[in-house]
Design goal:
- This protein folds into two domains: about 170 residues, Up-down Bundle (Butyryl-CoA Dehydrogenase, subunit A, domain 3), CATH 1.20.140; about 180 residues, 2-Layer Sandwich (Heat Shock Protein 90), CATH 3.30.565.
- Helix 4 runs antiparallel to helix 6, helix 6 packs antiparallel against helix 8 and helix 9 crosses helix 13.
- By secondary structure, it is α+β, with helices and mostly antiparallel strands.
- The strands form two sheets. It has a five-stranded mixed beta sheet, covered by helices on one side. The chain has a two-stranded antiparallel ribbon with strand order 1-3.
- About 50% of the residues lie in helices and about 10% in strands.
- Strand 6 and strand 7 form a beta hairpin.
- It is built from 15 helices and seven strands.
- The longest helix is centred in the middle third of the chain and has 32 residues.
Length: about 425
């Protein structure tokens, strides 16, 4: 009788009730070590039972925050498309909510996750286009810009987390093979940091030379500051338990920025090397990428992490090759990839000289836990609140102002 009653109710209303239901739960933050151990156990049933609930929670949180954006942005075609993708994903996973677990069901669920992964692969670019459309059509004031910045940080890091969980399941239990036999899903238990950094440099170099016909060289310096047995293997490589694709993404973006700055500052002549310092300590693995590309003013540094700021023209949709710069999302997304497992990314610059980009990752897998946004009452207040009254004689501007970090962390409680 209960089932008959549910089937008679409008589907949209039922889905909305389910959204409200799952948005009440906090996402389960996992460490890299937990993901690694779980992947080694390879218990497909346990993974299925966990993901069919956890993904509903994470999709529900993103959809609830998406609904709090300014109406003008929600009505943009690109944003509507992203919302539709997420709603369909939520609906499709919801269909597995109470289905009995058997071999056929496990197979169907894995195929569904592969489909969701493919369908949602252009979310970042599509959402970026929606923000560009809003800015061109209506303009953006400070309040709306702050709300968009706050939302995109949370939305994109949640997207990173969902793709991480889905990738782990698909690579371990699906037909696709991981990049290397030693990988557990997308995690490398002994990620060779220097190798990933050099790979990112070579690919950025290739792209740079397609645009400028020249590229600066790189010099890499390494140091194992933690001399424990676990820190140094027999070949003296610097290794860490990490997701190589995440580290590659971060370094690739930083190298692109450094190369562009050096070439344009030096007008393509007598290019100074880009210096990379990699250090592994007891708590942190640190990577510093230093360029002599002229740097930027202190007033601009904070803007580098703003999704609505870029010094390059938007990439043409007609050009299929990847742009060296364009949407302005390279640094903000790279910082999110670093922060996802409790690391970080900082930029320091000396105007007229050069820029240092410092990446920090957790050296211990047990401490590298997911940083996840939580949809809550305090989160809603941030979207609904107006501009804050200045509490300094000359309030700072940009995404790194004094009140901005408190707003960011309040939304996570």
């Amino acid at each position: 009788m209960r089932l008959t009653f549910l089937l008679r109710r409008p589907l949209a209303k039922l889905i909305e009730e389910k959204l409200d239901h799952y948005a009440q739960f906090r996402p389960s933050s996992l460490t890299i070590q937990q993901l690694l151990d779980f992947g080694r156990e390879a218990d497909q049933k346990a993974s299925y039972l966990f993901l069919r609930r956890e993904l509903l929670v994470r999709f529900a949180h993103s959809l609830k925050e998406l609904a709090l954006l300014p109406d003008a942005l929600i009505r943009m075609a690109s944003v509507t498309t992203v919302k539709d993708w997420y709603q369909r994903s939520f609906h499709e996973i919801l269909a597995h909510e109470n289905v009995e677990c058997n071999s056929k069901q496990l197979s169907n669920f894995t195929e569904l996750l592969k489909f969701i992964l493919k369908r949602n692969q252009d979310v970042v670019q599509t959402m970026a286009e929606g923000v560009i459309e809003l800015k061109a059509a209506h303009g953006v004031n400070a309040v709306i810009e702050n709300n968009i910045q706050y939302f995109l940080d949370r939305f994109y890091i949640n997207r990173i987390s969902m793709r991480m969980l889905i990738n782990q399941h698909v690579l371990i239990f699906g037909s696709e093979l991981p990049q290397s036999p030693q990988f557990i899903g997308s995690i490398d238990p002994a990620c060779d940091v220097v190798s990933v950094v050099e790979d990112a440099y070579l690919n950025a170099k290739h792209l740079c030379e397609r645009y400028y016909a020249i590229s600066p060289k790189v010099v890499v310096e390494t140091k194992n500051a933690d001399l424990s047995v676990l820190a140094v293997d027999q070949t003296n490589r610097i290794t860490v338990v990490y997701v190589p694709s995440h580290l590659y993404h971060i370094c690739f973006e930083l190298f692109k920025n450094a190369m562009r700055a050096v070439i344009e500052h030096k007008n393509g002549k007598d290019l100074p090397d880009i210096k990379v310092v990699i250090v592994k300590g007891k708590e942190d693995l640190s990577i510093k990428i230093c360029d002599l590309g002229g740097g930027v003013a202190r007033s601009v540094v904070d803007l580098l992490f703003n999704y609505m700021y870029t010094t390059a023209p938007p990439p043409s949709k007609e050009i299929q090759q990847p742009p060296l710069a364009g949407y302005g999302y390279g640094l903000p997304l790279s910082r999110l990839y670093a922060r996802y497992f409790k690391g970080d990314l900082y930029i320091t610059s000396m105007e007229g000289y050069g820029t240092d980009a410092c990446v920090y990752l957790k050296a211990l897998a047990v401490e590298a836990s997911e940083l996840l946004p939580i949809y809550s009452t305090s989160c809603r207040r941030i979207y609904q609140g107006g501009a804050q009254a200045p509490d300094w004689s000359q309030p700072p501007t940009g995404s790194g102002s004094f009140h901005q970090p408190s707003r960011y962390y309040r939304g996570r409680k």
